[in-house]
Amino acid sequence: MRINCKACGHKARISSRNELSPTFIDLYCQCLDVNCGHTFVMSLTYSRTLRPSAGAIDQLLFDRLSQLPASQQRQLFDQLSTN
Ligand SMILES: [Zn+2]
């Protein structure tokens, strides 16, 4: 991740991080320009999912199938095996 100093625009580095929650992290940053030396905190937040995790899709499918009556489950698996 590229961070720039908000004071001078020079490249900055993340010196440490504080994970306040699994979706919100404070990043402690330090400007790499020796003539500036600005230190500041940036926040990193989770925004949204673009494509669900493959594991989540499998779980969703399993949950959906397990809610179906046994006869309907068998019918679906029979259809899968004939294709
Ligand atoms: Zn700076």
Ions, cofactors and other bound molecules: zinc ion
Instruction: Tell me the β content.
Output: 25-35%
- Decide which structural class fits the backbone: alpha+beta
Largest sheet: 4 strands, antiparallel
Order of helices and strands: EEEEHH
Radius of gyration, CA atoms, in whole angstroms: 24 Å
Number of helices: 2
Task: Tell the overall outline.
Answer: rod-shaped
Mean pLDDT across all amino acids: 93
**How many independent structural domains?**
2
Q: Strand order within the widest sheet?
A: 1-2-3-4
Helicity level, as a percent range? 25-40%
Instruction: Work out the number of β strands.
Output: 4
Quickly describe the structure:
The chain is α+β, with helices and mostly antiparallel strands and 83 residues long. 33% of the residues lie in helices and 34% in strands. The protein is built from two helices and four strands, in the order E-E-E-E-H-H.
Topology:
Layout: E1 3-4, E2 11-21, E3 24-31, E4 39-45, H1 54-67, H2 70-82
Antiparallel strand pairs: 1-2, 2-3, 3-4
The structure holds zinc ion.
Zinc ion (ZN) binds next to loops.
Protein name: Ogr/Delta-like zinc finger
Pfam families: Ogr_Delta (PF04606)
Organism: Pseudomonas flexibilis
